[in-house]
Amino acid sequence: MLQLAPDVGLCSNWSVSDPEDPPGCAAVGDERRASGRMSLRGYLDTRAAEGGHSSIPFSDALRPFMAPGVRLRAKQVATAIAAPLERRKAGALASGGPLRLHLGSGGNNLPGWINVDLVGAHADVAWDLRHPLPFADDTAEAVFLEHVLEHMTVAVGMHVLRGIRRVLAPGGILRVGVPDAGLYARSYAAGDAVLDELRPGRPTRMLALGEVFQEHGHLSAWDGETLALVIGETGYELPTIMPGGTSAITPAPDSPVRVPETVYVEAVVPQ
Known about the structure:
Rossmann fold; single chain; 271 residues; alpha/beta
């Protein structure tokens, strides 16, 4: 058990003054505020309020009472119920020629692509990527996922990538972008400014780092080496780490807002 000397006290919260705190606690909070970092209480309130809005009836009203995992499960159930209709919709959209599939579009619908995500994301097709995609074999010329795999375990992500392999035509391009946990970890260890620039104002650098691994519904963490390994192990050739905005797909589908914190890997289906 930790033993404190009689004259040593613990601050209740460095960001919130308390008359019972020992001398010096207020100074710690003042220093944090002067550095441009938000208070811990403000940070936690902000994190609790994040999550956007859903088109699913009553979803927003229930958000404060439902854990992220429960909300995700509700969307998956709603998507499964809609599957027969969405399968027919996918078939109609796919009738126009070679496909470009944007999977896990998250509301960032790309023109010229079929955007696919769970119910509530305002995608062209509502579909659970864990299930076989509602498109014919060898019909897609390109598939793009950005900030999707980190919401799955590595094993589930590999399952999804194998399913994508079925719909990509020989020579088709897979492009995947994920938050670069390696970039964040290196910045934290080196003490450089990258972490604070990408996630500014967090009460501590550790809280900023932890967001990449634990927040936003993330279930796995990735760097370029890991992403290239996983893609290569799921049946794709020449997995290559690519700079954001640079792609064999024209134009590059990357979201400019996400590029600074994202590592991209591109690979092809064997001919």
